[in-house]
Amino acid sequence: MSKDLQNKILFQQVVELLQNARQQVLRNVNQTMTITYFEIGRMIVEEEQNGKDRAEYGKQLLKGLSQQLTKEFGKGFSVENLERIRKFYVVYSNSLTVSTISENVKSQTVSTNLQISENTSILPQSEMSKSVTLSRIFKLNWSHYNFLIRIDDEKERRFYEIESEKYNWSVRELKRQYDSALYARLALSRDKEGILKLSEEGQIIEKPKDIIKDPYILEFLGLPELHQYSETQLEEEIINKLEHFLLELGHGFTFVARQQRITFDDKHFRIDLVFYNRILKSFVLIDLKIGELKHQDLGQMQMYVNYYDREKRLEDENQTIGIVLCQNKSDLVVEYTLPENNEQIFASKYKTVLPSKEDLIKLISESK
């Protein structure tokens, strides 16, 4: 090996080491700030509880604390920010349970001590009978928690927290997934036990139905809802925004091909998009349809799926999944076209603009 090549390899190794160190330092700083804000919130709540008129005393307390902290540390400690810090403590001190804590706490040195009471709330150190490490509980940045505390439903909030940590979502991606009602869309096809699992484990993919959403939200394509576009244009925009589309599809998807040609009896057919899901070990075929879904569309997808199962699928792979994405559909057409025990072919709506909260709730309700 030449000396120049050795130097180049050494340089690359040092750069990688320094970059990893910087990222680790940044993660540690962000986590330390989150834990610090939780402790500040605890102190504020404790002090408020000592006041006679809690509401009035709390206002004056935050105002005075804001003035003093701003004078000492500069920006970042407005009354509004202190109210969010207080809310952060209140939300998570009430929602963190013994089971949540026990899953996160191993044999790690305790740096911050909290109490677990009989009703499973986290209490101050003065009532402590068991200590935990907050760093094993708060794994996201403060910016994530600042958004998460706005979600009132505890199960829904926990789901987005788990998914953000598991898949390293940025705050922007977290907001986008929340705005597109990911939790509600996934909960549609689940029973009570399945919905509970979402809040405890996040999205677990075990069977084809677990990856299906209805509707799919494709607002990132930039296509106006009433704009006249062809299926080819829709496909082109998806390819141009493939990274975003993969995020909307969900976990474990990799892109395989577009306009995949299959041929038999001297006839040629083209599948719009082909993906592979590494979790399910299955090919996933997607056909794009403008307008109303027809039974012929489902029949065509059934043909594609059969072909892939017989000609493309390997012995250690699971059956192929087919998804027809359409602007509109009749659930009865889907029900009577597909067999009762269907586990391979699915039809879902798509929206090219992010609906309002009211419209999205209505859209999801209609799909139940």
Gap between N and C termini: 65 Å
Q: SSE order, as H and E?
A: HHHHEEHHHHHEHHEEEHEHEH
In terms of per-residue confidence, which ranges show pLDDT below 50 for 5 or more consecutive residues? 97-132
The whole-number mean of residue pLDDT values reads 82
Q: Which outline best applies?
A: globular
What strand line-up does the widest sheet have?
3-8-7-6-5-4
> What is the percentage of strand-forming residues?
5-15%
How many runs of DSSP E, i.e. beta strands? 8
Helix content: 40-55%
Radius of gyration: 26 Å
Secondary structure tally, helices: 14
* Structural class by helix and strand composition: alpha/beta
Characterize the largest beta sheet: strand count, sense, and whether it forms a barrel: 6 strands, mixed
Concise description?
By secondary structure, this protein is of the alpha/beta class. It has helices at residues 3-49, 54-73, 79-95, 98-104, 142-148, 154-166, 171-179, 182-187, 192-201, 231-240, 242-249, 295-312, 331-337, 357-366; strands at residues 115-116, 122-123, 216-217, 253-264, 267-277, 282-292, 321-328, 345-351.
